[in-house]
Structure formats: C-alpha cells, structure tokens
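Fold it.
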Amino acid sequence: MNHVFARPLIAVPARFSASTSALRMAAEVNARALVESVWRAGGEPVTIHPHAPGGEADPNEVAARLGAFDAVLLPGGGDLAPRRYGDASIHASVYDVDDEQDGFDLAVARYALDAGMPMLAICRGLQVVNTVLGGTLHQDMGGPGRDHRHLVHPIALDAGSGVADAVGADKLDGSCYHHQCVDRPGSGLTVTARAADGTIEALELRDPAGWFLAVQWHPEDTAAEDPSQQRLFDALVRSA
C-alpha cells in the first residue's frame, strides 16, 4: 500500500438481492457481519459489482478491476447452476441461481488463484473455487435433518493445516447454512476439515501461489464473539 494510513482493500463480490426494504427494489448486497469482520481485521471491505453479461465475465476486465485490490473475499449466497460443474440435471431444491452471479464469481476465483492473490472463500465461495478447479457438488444433502441449515455444529480441523493454524485450534463450532456440499474436490485441493457427518468443511491448495483458505461454514456469523472465527479474517488481511 502506498498510503501510510490506508487499509488493505478487500474485494467482496456483491450478491444480487431481489428486494431490500431500505432500498425499495432489487439491490446488490453483502452481509453486514461479513464486512464488519473484515473491518475489525484492519481491512477496507469493498463491495464490487458482478458484471458477466450472458453469464460469462471478460477475464481481462476482471483482471483489470481486481488489480486495484489487495485480496478477495468470496462470500456465501445462492446455488451455482449445476451445469457449471458438469451436471445436466437440476435438483428441485436448487435455488437463487443467477447466471451473471455465477459467471462473475467463477471468473474472480479463477483470476485470484492464477495470480496468487490472497483469497478467503466462504460457503458458496468454497463451492465456486471447487468448481473452478474441476470439482463437483452434491446438489442436495438429503433434505430436512440432513442439510446444514440454521445449524451450529462441531468441526474437526486437521492438525498443522492452514485453517487450524489460522484459527489457532484443531476444533471449533461452525455456524452453517447450506443444503449443498462438495462431492469431489477439485484439482490440487486438499480436505482439511470435516463435520461429524463427514461433510467437507475446509479446502486448501496443496501448492498455493498465494494465501488461500476455503471454508463451508460462515465464520462471520460468530466472529464478533468468537476470536477463533475472527482470526480467519485477520489472516486474510495480514496476507494482503
């Protein structure tokens, strides 16, 4: 950074929202808890507009836009279109698919991985990265009682892994909200955390070009009260 008092700039792709009460109409948003977690870590969270006409982002445009930033945070959101990971079928539970959102998030993840740009991927973000690297997803974990919606549960982290080092522990309670999960990890990805039912909760690169972590749970939900969750955002901003 060139300015003495400047915070590292953390790009956070917006989520499309069909309606928001304060703005009266469709909007682009990010969770307040998410951006406040970045702020507490010393970063400047910047929501960026997802631009991918026809569902495909221009790689040169994405590179030029992200060149102004120091790191990327890929947040949660709706489901990826199954075609993005090679599945021609669509489960009835798949929701909030947006072709432009998919195209932009995938392009951002691809650029950050190729450029070695620091990146923290959360929930949908983890699934986006897995898809970019050729992995697949379970479109639905089995319905009520088997999905991880509105659930706080124990997660076991592999000793010596990047995620364990970042949070300073080998287990924690993660706040989850998802009905999909990783099926086959993408090329170069290693599973470094699991829930008790075997669900993949963290992925890391075996040979990263830059700092990278992907988690399936939502650390921002409890980061204000739980230092171990906040440390994930601290690690991202330090790497920036």
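Residues 87 and 136 are 8 Å apart (CA to CA).
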